[in-house]
Amino acid sequence: MRNKIHRFISISCLLFASSLSAAAVPNMPIATINARKILSDSLIAKSALAKFQLDFLPKERELQDLAKTIKDKSVDLEKIKAGLTPSQLSARQGVIEELRRELKRKQQQFAEDRDARKRDDIQHVFSIATQAVKIVAEGAHIEMVFQDVVYANPATDITTKVIEVMDSQTDK
Length: 172
Hints:
The protein is mainly alpha-helical. The protein has a single domain (27-171), classed as Protein Binding, DinI Protein, Chain A (2-Layer Sandwich), CATH 3.30.910.20. 78% of the residues lie in helices and 5% in strands. It has a two-stranded parallel ribbon. The longest helix has 54 residues, at 86-139. The chain is elongated, with a radius of gyration of 29 Å.
């Protein structure tokens, strides 16, 4: 019985609160944008991605080449280690271990550089998107714009218009 009373009171409070919020802001024009779509479809984002890949592809290849060199040296050492003296074996293992440490250090540096650049590129795209959202919202007399909501009526989505404004600014 007590559980039913609590449930009734909770439901009553929710209904009352929702009726108040609906009455407080009648027909407020709102819109939504999809950030993922902006990052995948806008020209500025595509351009940033292409430049990002162009800048980081050589570094990635360098790391792959170094990893292949380490693998090749390890395979070669396994083949000939029976004929090596302990000091020769130790020296070659030391060279391989030094290359592994160098690879690990370069991979960490690469990951840090790549992540920092990705954050900067995304921030740059979103700063342009923010300006485009303001232009679209002011032009359509929209009071509030939400980003990446759980559900929104497709009629409230202004992402395509925002991308169009961003792309028109990019062409200039």
